[in-house]
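Hi F.,

I've been meaning to write this up properly since the lab meeting, where we talked about keeping a consistent format for the predictions we share between groups. The idea is simple: the sequence comes first, exactly as it goes in, then the structure tokens exactly as they come out, then a line or two of notes. No screenshots and no reformatting. I'm using this chain as the first example so we have something concrete to point to.
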Amino acid sequence: QVHVQESGPGLVKPSQTLSLTCTVSGGSITTSSYAWSWIRQPPGKGLEWMGVSDYDGSTYYSPSLKSRTSISRDTSKNQFSLQLISVTPEDTAVYYCVAPQLGSWGQGTQVTVSS
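Output, unedited:
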């Protein structure tokens, strides 16, 4: 069974870069046809898909976040990472890493953007 787990700072200052890492266990991020996503949920709002890294390293982003979002991966560590630049308080949310085809979600990590 594949498990995913987010890690990273819980507090980021406005205008800085939010960086989170997702560690995958029980499976490889390079397994064909698997994809690895980031989803967030701001307080009082619904889930927002941010982007995905496919098994071959291809990436796709939400149009509304594309200019600020980058997803990368480290195959040697079986991890994929999220970077969101120029954050504002509106980026405060619980951030999840997800393996959609496997139905695997991380527990989520709260990130607050505040000075």
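Notes:
The two ends are 40 Å apart (CA to CA).
The mean pLDDT is 96.

If this format works for you, I'll send the rest the same way.

G.
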